[in-house]
Amino acid sequence: MTLTPLQVHDLPERRGRSSIGGASLIGVGTAVPELCWPQRRIADAMADLWNLSGDSRLRWERIVAASGIEQRHAVLPFTEIPKLTTAQRMNLYERFAPDLACRAAIAALAQAGVSAHRITDLIIVSCTGFSAPGVDVSLVRALGLPRTVRRTVIGFMGCFGAINGLRAAVGACAADPNAMVLMVCVELCSLHLQQEVNAQTMVASALFADGAAAAVLRSSDTGRYETDHAHAIVDGMSPALGRVTLGSSRLVDAQRDAMTWRITDAGFVMSLSRSVPAVLGRELDTFVRDASPATPATFVIHPGGPGILDAADAALRPFDHRGVACSRDVLRRFGNMSSGTVLFVLKETLRQGLPLPMMLLAFGPGLTLECVTLEK
User: Fold this and answer.
1) What is the CATH classification number for the domain harbouring 42?
2) What is the DSSP pairing of strand 358-364 with strand 298-301?
3) Is residue 233 part of a domain?
């Protein structure tokens, strides 16, 4: 069909919103491995493993001191990983990822007040491991999800994967007025610590950790639920925490290789250009204005690292930059857990009662900026 100029003019403007109906967030859950070490202890152990001395040791000490991290969780001691092959690392992922994902899912379902048998769609997000049958099949069995649950796996998209997962959930809810979606991010970043020492591996080794986060979303057309009382439960289900928009995405064409995530014979290797914080700082103001018709009251920012948070903080000051402190707190207590970290921040902003609308922002390879908004 050919559109006339008048018809083109009459098309709705794309402003980052989902269609009528869409998805309501009703639960968020998080989980971390039981093993936890102070950042200082991890730093000393890695320095010994790498045999650092002189200027190399001082450089590593500066990177660690600037990380803004006090402790990190992992499924195994950090020093046990660097010499492993990719196959060995994937065996460990298959061993540890399902249980961690299950714990986050149980927490999200509990907050939502939803029984596992009511889930119609399961979305798994991960960029740190592969297996088939994978985490999705393991969760069907462990949680007692229906064997008819529609399963989607979103892989290797990096730190903005949770945004893609939420967007997929919005689509599922828009397509089915009875949809009940469980979205789970699980990342074992520690499995990709490297034996080779350079600036890139030092930065990654100082930042990344393991964790899982989950969200439960229902179709906004599913019945009528009272949302005025934060602690009320209607018909056995928690009230909506907010309505999730379809969100927006932007590729920064000139920065395609500023952040990469590639598979090698010794695990997955990240490269991160020093230019990334400055680029994000330049792009964020316009991206936020274009992505949302209403000015966000709170920002839920993926804490990729201290430099990225500093750049975001500066760029978002015209918007009052409320919420950045929650991102810094999550980075301090957990480190960067890749895709699920933004849900850890969301959980903290909701706990503190920060106001809606909240814009969830995350960044990753491409160079890509992604967002969705949680609205009233």
Assistant:
1) 3.40.47.10
2) parallel
3) no
